[in-house]
Each structure stands twice: as C-alpha cells, then as structure tokens.
Amino acid sequence: MAAIFQGVGAAAALSSSPSNSFDSKKFVSSPCRPFSVRKGASFAVVRSDGRVNLNPKGRRAQQLISNAVATKSDSAAASSSSKPGHELLLFEALQEGLEEEMERDLRVCVMGEDVGHYGGSYKVTKGLAKKFGDLRVLDTPIAENSFSGMGIGAAMTGLRPVVEGMNMGFLLLAFNQISNNCGMLHYTSGGQFTIPIVIRGPGGVGRQLGAEHSQRLESYFQSIPGIQMVACSTPYNAKGLMKAAIRSENPVILFEHVLLYNLKERIPDEDYICNLEEAEMVRPGEHVTILTYSRMRYHVMQAAKTLVNKGYDPEVIDIRSLKPFDLYTIGNSVKKTHRVLIVEECMRTGGIGASLIAAITENFNDYLDAPIMCLSSQDVPTPYAGTLEEVTVVQPAQIVTAVEQLCQ
Amino acid sequence: MALSHLAASASRSSSLLKPLSSGLSLRRSISGDNSPLTVETSVPFTSHQCEAPSRSVETNPKELLTFFRDMALMRRMEIAADSLYKAKLIRGFCHLYDGQEAVAVGMEAAITKKDCIITAYRDHCTFVSRGGTLLEVFAELMGRQAGCSKGKGGSMHFYKKDSNFYGGHGIVGAQVPLGCGLAFAQKYSKDETVTFALYGDGAANQGQLFEALNISALWDLPAILVCENNHYGMGTAEWRAAKSPAYYKRGDYVPGLKVDGMDALAVKQACKFAKEHALKNGPIILEMDTYRYHGHSMSDPGSTYRTRDEISGVRQERDPIERIRKLILSHDLATEKELKDVEKEVRKEVDDAIAQAKESPMPEPSELFTNVYAKGLGVESFGADRKEVRATLP
C-alpha cells in the first residue's frame, strides 16, 4: 500500500496544478519583523546549542531566526550560488528539521508505519534509520491506536517521540489516545506529566485518492483541549514548525499536505524555528483580508494574481497555527481592511473556518464592514472522479468571485 | 510508618502476655523482623509457554505484618470512600478496590519505585501502595486542592510521577498501549526496570491490547501485562464476554502465568518472576484471579449479576486480609489483639485523613485554566491583544 501511495503522491505532485512547482517565496514580500518588539510578552528562545535565552534582545541575528516570514525574495535572475541558504523540496525540509532535532536531542525518536527501513512513504524519514538505528526510528505494525498510545506513554516519561500517521485519516483510529491521553493528561494529572509528542502526517485532498484518503482531520481535532495544531505550507515553515513542535513541551499535531511535498524553496542554512502560535503574512494589502492555510494558500495566491490585475489589493495571511488562532495578527489585519474572506480545505460544517468565523466575530465584530465569507470544501465525501474532486475543493476562480462580491 | 510507635507499646504488652520465653520476646514484637520464613501459596501457579515459579515464597515477619497493615488500610480507605460517596461528598464515578488489595500490595513488594505501574480507573489502592498519602486520596476524591491532581482529575485520575505511578485512566484498555510505551522508554534509556500495565477482564477483549502486545513482543520490551480478573466486566460475567476466559493464554506466543490474586505472597512471587522474565525475554502476561466485593462502581449494587452468597462465599474463603491474618497468627508473629489494634489504628488514620481532606479548600477558579498547556518556550495562547487568552468567570 505504501508503494502505491508514494507513486501516486509523487506523480500527483508533479502533475498539472501549477501551484506545486512554484517557488513559494515569490509571493512573499514583507520584511522580517524584529523579534524583540513584542511588548510585555516574555518568553524563552531555545538556541541551537540548547541554551535557553530569555528575552533575547541582545542575541546575534545569525544564531536563531524565529520570525514568521521568509525574507523578501530577490529577482529570480540571481544565480543560486550567490544567494545564501540552500534549495530543497518540502519533504526534504521536513527531513532536515527532523534530523537536526534528532541529533540535537537524544530523546527524539520517530515511530510510524514504514518510517524506518522503507524511508517513509513520503520520504520524510529517508535515511534516518540508517543514521540513528532501529531503536530511534521505529517501524511499527499497522496499529495506529496502540502505537500512538505507546508514543504518548513514552512521552510521559520524558522521551520526545514523533509519531507519523501515514495519512492523517488513519489517525482516526487513534482518536481516543490523542484526545484523552495526549490532550488531557497534563490537566488531569494536575501538571505532573507533560506530553512532548509530535503527531504528524499528510492529510488533505490529494489527486483522486478517494474519500477515505482525503480527510481533513484538523476539523475533528480542533476541539481537543491541551493540544496545539499547526499546518505547514512552505519548505521554510515546514522545517521551522517541525523543529518548534519537537522542542515544545506540549503535544503538537503537525498537518502536512499530500500535494505540497514537492514544493521547492531556498531556506537559510542556519538553525531557525517558526513560532508555533504565529500566523504568516504572505502578502500585505489594503482591501480584504484572506485567511488561509496549507494547500489553499497556493490557490489564494493564484487568485491574488488575477485580483491584482483587476485592481484589488488583497492581504493574504497563512494562519499556520490552527489551534490556537493567532488572533493578534488576524485582528490587526481585520482592523485595517474591514473585510474577511476565509479560504480553507475543511468542510463547511465544523471546520477550521467555522471556528475562525466565530473567533473573529466575537473579537472584531465592530471592525467588520461586511459579513465574513468562508469558502470551504463541500460537505461530501471526496469523490474519486477528477472532475467531481475538483469541484469539491475551493478553486481560484471561486476566490476571485468571492473577493469581488465582498468588496462591492 | 507508625509501626515503631506501635512496637514500643506492643512489645511491652506482648512480653506481659507471653512470659514463656523472654528470650523470644524480641521476635514477638509487632514490628516483626527480617528472619526468613517460607510460606506455600494457596494454589500452584498455572503457566503458559513458560516454567511456573515455585510455590514456596520467601518472606519474613516484617513483610507479613506490613502486608496486613497496608491491606487493612486500603480496605478501610475504600469503605470510607463508600460512605463519603453516599454522603455526596464524592461525586461522579468511584470504583472501589476492596477485595483486590492483595494484587496492589503483593506487586509493590516485588518491585522498586523505579519500575512503572499503570492501571485503569480502579486505582485508589495502587496509588497508595506506590506511596500516595491518604490525604491526597481523599482530597482528590472530594475535588479539593490538596488532592494528588489538585482536584482536577478525580477518582479515575490519580498519578504519582516521582514514584512512577502513571495512573489512573478512564477509558477501558487505553492504558495498555501507554504502558507498553513506558516499557519502550525504559528500554530506550536502558534503565533495567520494567512496567506493569494492569487491566481488567473486561479490557482483555480490547483490540489495542493485542496490538500493543504484538509490538512489545516484536521490540522485546520489558512490559508485563497484568490482567486483574475479577470475573465481571461491570455487569457482564467473563464467560459471557470472552470466548476464551483463560486470559493468561491469550498472548499466544507471549508466555503467561495464572496467579491466585487473593494471596499476596503468590502475587509477590509472580511479579518477581515476571520482572526477571521481562528483563531478559520481553513481555509476559500475568492473570490475577481476584474478586471485588463492591459493584463495578458506586452506582452498581453488584448483586444483580451475581448472588450475595457468591460474594460472601469469597469473603469467607479467600479474603486476602484474613489469609494474612491467619498466617500471622499461625506463625505466632502477633496476637489477635495486636492485629485488632492495628486495624483500629488504621481506622483512625483514615478518619484523620478524611477530616483533614474536608478542610482543604476547593480549587481556585483560576485553576480552571492552568495546566492545559505547559508553559515555556514562548508557548502562550495568543489572544486578540497578544496576551494570554483570558476568560472572565461569572
């Protein structure tokens, strides 16, 4: 089964959709925000050598970068050798992040189906078993409920497992462990145990993978108290979020997308993490705030090109943190543009968009000039037929129409 | 604990009562000594895919007296919890362990505090045997601040990290994969310790148990799965729930041992054997043949699916505390009166703990939001103004 997966995934990613082979940095144009500007919030930054630095005002800029946004891209004509950093695909970025963390902390281990000798069905764990051995990169039998439980049990003692669901949908079998044990143990034990586990895997609607392999589990998990959820969308934030998730003391669920694994980007050579609770400003604008995450970010950016040609100036924010929402960034944007469009891949009922609408309405209702619009996938099982599947998810044309409607 | 104070008063009285041999008066003191004693278990062990350990258990008077005291304490504690529940000071679910004390006490005698124990929701006595105090138990049951989980866990969520007691789990069977994860961590850190993952005869039919057992056997983990078979999964008798109620055999390729769970010494022997086995050969299953006097929980009278005769029959013939009492008396380790004094003392201890627990306050309203996330590394719930998410309580 894994072999078919890999073939489909690779072929699908390279096929017709133009968003996959884009250099995602082309759409990023906001400068880095300096780290120490935050008022009143004190937090610790873990540096690459393991030391913990509180309020790192005096740190050298090279050591640890934790800003939300990749640097402004230069013109594409610049030769690759003179640019800093190195270019890689998203799954390689994940692998790099995982490898660096495993080197840095001996307690990090990986568990999942075919992560070891096979190298991972999406090659995220490729080469790790050879490097770290069978006790740190563990091939499990097909038993999601129990190996997720085992990961959580190991995390209770202080190990830092990274549990991979070969497809997020399979983690439904581990829902009890994730909800009751992973999310709630810190609370029900009165703070005695922390569960520093990372649960990751690809989800989302792929290329004709069928209903059961195209699920969006973020909508099911979002109510579980005690967990954090993040969704990566570019190689830069994939590596950063993977590293931050592993270093976090809280259980983090990292949502990857089946169709984004072959995105290419240039990422910095030095050690960096992305803040788990922060949203990413993809494209600042004035007219409308578009909130999105994961694959829909690319559909939004494609629609943004059309919108710019039509004279609109959308502000695109990749919310990245699905739980908790970064209401600060979102709020500042709403206060500026007064119009919100949410573009997501979850289904309309009970999805991330539904929660986001509630959160924005509760907090920023006075700043809205129009009701929030939410474009989500249809409330249907994802069909196999390609034409039907295309209609199930939000397409760029719909986004353009929605913005036009919103900005009337 | 209070044994030394008891020894002072009792040894005086014992030497008064039995002036036969003043030379033996030291041995007769209630605190006991470490001189070895060999006792036979009530029934031999039945084994599956392994050699059963011997029926003769090495023990000593001190240990037997400790068993008696600890089990009497647990029994009293559970009965007191029953009364507190009926007085509506304990709400929700309350699953009592009386009748099964020998499993907790025997297991603890065979292992160290570095070995891990994880169990399901019938966890009050296991928590105490791992070093939890009565105050923590009663305060947690009543939802007070002094409870082991600060009042936020309740009856089914007792944990004690510093003595490797991992709880306290409400969902049937979910603790077994957690337990195998603990064993994995022990193997990973090369600790030379083992994990005892306890579950009931009802949970023995859960698929995740077999999944975890498969993985443990594959990876050679020092996991010991202990089935506390009290013959009823809530209201369903084991023969109605399991096609094969020989739970110790269900591991198939994993060896198993069936133990009389009402005999603390047999439990101790089995756990010692299992620990040695697990450290060398990987997982093993222990089936403790035990019985609970109360119903499944406080809302279950316990008599609709079994007869009162059955319950009183087991109480007459197999009660763990009575067995130890008879052993102590037959080996002349203490007098009837001394044992009764221990029971009185234990009763007082329980009453004192309850009084103290009642004085402990309810958790502060702000405690509602603590311990949801672990703080540090910049993890804070970001609210609309970048501060922590605040909620105003009515």
From TrEMBL, chain A:
Q: Please give the SMART domains that the UniProt record associates with this protein.
A: Transket_pyr
Would the keyword Methyltransferase be found if you checked this record's keyword annotation? no
Alphabetically, the GO molecular function entries are: metal ion binding; pyruvate dehydrogenase (acetyl-transferring) activity
Which InterPro entries does the record match to this protein? Answer: THDP-binding (IPR029061), Transketo_C/PFOR_II (IPR009014), Transketolase-like_Pyr-bd (IPR005475), Transketolase_C (IPR033248)
**Which reaction equation describes what this protein catalyses?**
N(6)-[(R)-lipoyl]-L-lysyl-[protein] + pyruvate + H(+) = N(6)-[(R)-S(8)-acetyldihydrolipoyl]-L-lysyl-[protein] + CO2
Q: Which UniProt keywords apply?
A: Chloroplast, Metal-binding, Oxidoreductase, Plastid, Potassium, Pyruvate, Thiamine pyrophosphate, Transit peptide
Q: List the CDD domains hit by this protein, alphabetically.
A: TPP_PYR_E1-PDHc-beta_like
Q: What does this protein do?
A: The pyruvate dehydrogenase complex catalyzes the overall conversion of pyruvate to acetyl-CoA and CO(2). It contains multiple copies of three enzymatic components: pyruvate dehydrogenase (E1), dihydrolipoamide acetyltransferase (E2) and lipoamide dehydrogenase (E3).
Protein name (Swiss-Prot/TrEMBL)? pyruvate dehydrogenase (acetyl-transferring)
UniProt organism field: Gossypium tomentosum (Hawaiian cotton)
Automatic annotation (TrEMBL), chain B:
Keyword tags = Oxidoreductase, Pyruvate, Thiamine pyrophosphate
Q: Which GO MF terms are attached to this record?
A: pyruvate dehydrogenase (acetyl-transferring) activity
Look up keyword Oxidoreductase and say if it applies. yes
- EC number in record: 1.2.4.1
Pfam families given for it? E1_dh
> Which parts form a coiled-coil structure per UniProt?
none
Q: What is this protein called?
A: Pyruvate dehydrogenase E1 component subunit alpha
Q: Where does this protein come from, organism-wise?
A: Gossypium tomentosum (Hawaiian cotton)
- Upper lineage ranks? Eukaryota, Viridiplantae, Streptophyta, Embryophyta, Tracheophyta
